[in-house]
Task: structure prediction
Amino acid sequence: MILMMRCTLTALSIIALASVSVADRQQKKKAAAPEVLMTIEEMSGVEAVITTDLGAIRFEFFADKAPNHCRHFIKLARQGFYDGSAFHRVIARAIIQGGDPLLKDSRTPRQRWGSGALNQLTDELTDIKHTRGVVSTVRIPGRANSGGAQFFICASPQPSLDSQFSAFGQVTEGIDIVEKISLAQTDANQLTVNPVKIISVKIEPKKTEPFRDATLDQLRRDVLLRTTLGDITVEINPDLAPEHARNFLKLVETGWYDHTAFHRVIPGFVIQGGIGSTRAEGAPHAADRWVRKLKGEFKNLQHVRGILSMARADDPDSADTSFFIVLGPAPHLDGKYTVFGKVIDGFDVLDRIEKVERQGERPLERIELIEAAIKP
Result:
């Protein structure tokens, strides 16, 4: 009985040892497996979200221009490397610099700020200009291939930095936060008196532009315009101008038009709105990333009362967000401005807007577009 028990224990020990040996080999094999690098396509499909004490900044990656810098940043962000660091150096309305892990420790002497996590990457100097919102890699002045984890964001164009630093991203949301951080109080060395904390940096799927791939049938929608003088419903007709319909619905869906104003009223002619600067303090919007110039889609359609058409400058391809509703026959606009819909309800509201007191074409009272919403 004792011998049998001993044999059983011995057998169990052998099995256990074998299991440990197999586990060790598997772990070593796993550790030795080469790192799977993100493809350019994969990196192009994500963006970084930097959450700070002063707000959030999102930026997309120039994966095809600086793939190694993009991979490095994404890898570090996913590891939580940047969480708890800070923007420690700023130049007012010019640049903000952060990403030094030494800033995670409040005991790090100021003279060492900006010296951590360098000398990690080979330069990827490209034709990307350091315009407003560009994200680029910090490196040691005059020393090639000295970039690493630290980065800076341009709050305004910095042409002197072009071809000198590896640009790898572009801010898509939160450029106002970049500017706000750039105004932080500094000492004589441009170091922030109180570093702006980077709470976290996360990598998320890139936001999808609404209605980008919508069919004509999907663009046949009615939109409610809630104003301070009442509600107007417009019918969008993509058959007339599919890209203008797509653009308008995109801006409505994202809330871009909310809290803008009708800034121009000409009785018997038009009311005009849809300019971002008419928001309180000209506040930017998250969907600014999708605002772009539209190619004219002109048809010889009559601009009569209730027609919804797109405003533009002298360039026929300069329309972007501003639209107008016609108050009376305007044949001189026919074939020169893009018609993409019409009013189907709320003509009494047009009457009220038309009668407001004005100074020239500017209403003396604010006619706010409280909300634009796509009807179910």
